[in-house]
Amino acid sequence: MKLWQFTHEGIDDGRLALARCPRCEGEGVTAQFVLNYQGDDLAEIEHHVICGCRQAAVDFLARANLPAGRFRSAALGDLDWEAIQPPRARSTVQRYAERLDEMLIQGLGLTLTGAVGTGKTHVAVGLIRLACGLGVEARFYGTPELLTRIKATYNHTAGETEDDVLRELAEVPLLVLDDLGVERPSDWVRDRLYQIVNARYVAQRPIVVTANEDLSDLAPRLGRRIVSRLSGASIELTFEGQDYRARARDQLLEKVGLSWADQWRAA
Fold first, then answer.
1. In the chain, where does DSSP find H-type helix?
2. N or C: which end of the chain has fewer CB within 10 A?
3. What architecture is domain 55-246?
């Protein structure tokens, strides 16, 4: 099965990490050799220990800050791929997911732009879930939510400092910034976003960004330094499909034997 075909059921319990683990090769245990005396002779004794790959994936998912509610179990395998348009955008996301480990090594991210409701956030959540499911730590943040978290550190009762947050964002192997550009572009906002983007650019760690506008349109508000670094380290895709949310609604209605037209007639 392709990596982009895995649903949350095949990821959330660590089965994907187990199947892809290079240490235990899907066995769940690894061999360790220790030196021990057998009588007067020193011998190498083999011990089998439980591999931590499966539990690590579960722990990473618990810390990934995935959005609750509608996206609580979103995965690439649950995505209505026909709704992701144009076909080039769809195939590029699929290839990116299939080679995610290589993309992480190269520090190459994705910038997903387009109108609201075209599936950008579902794709971003799915990539975070896939990364964690493969045993790679990742974080998801709505950009306004992240900026609020940073501001909260200025309260002397906060349990973390601004440096703590910025260090976490710089060091996590994969980061998603959802809804970039919706925040009010003050100097403070631009400075903090630049610190995050630049730290990851220098360290060659990828960012997956979703935005309603193209990077070129965001440059006057966010600053060219931010846009240049995102552009230089990501594949920019514009989603042009119809409203993904409306399509998802119709599919839910079909599951219960109704259609949107039926709802209007009933009203």
1. 15-20, 53-62, 87-98, 100-106, 120-133, 143-152, 162-171, 187-203, 215-222, 224-232, 244-255, 260-266
2. C
3. 3-Layer(aba) Sandwich (3.40)
- Average pLDDT of the segment spanning 236-246: 80
Positive/negative CA dihedral, 134, 138, 144, 145: positive
The H or E element containing residue 41 is: strand 41-50
pLDDT (0 to 100) of residue 249: 63
Mean per-residue pLDDT, 84-88: 94
Q: How far apart are CA 265 and CA 244, in angstroms?
A: 23
Q: 10 Å Cβ neighbour count for 229?
A: 18
Q: pLDDT of 144-193, one tens digit each?
A: 999 999 999 998 777 899 999 999 999 999 999 999 999 888 999 999 99
C-beta of residue 209 within 8 angstroms of C-beta of residue 112: yes
This prediction's pTM? 0.86
Q: What are phi and psi of 7, to 5 degrees?
A: -90, 175
Rounded Cα–Cα distance for residues 142 and 242 (Å): 23
The pLDDT of residue 252: 62
- Listed by start position, the domains of the chain span 55-246
pLDDT interval class at 225 (50, 70, 90): very high
Give the whole-angstrom CA distance, residue 109 versus residue 96.
9
The three-state secondary structure class of 28 is coil
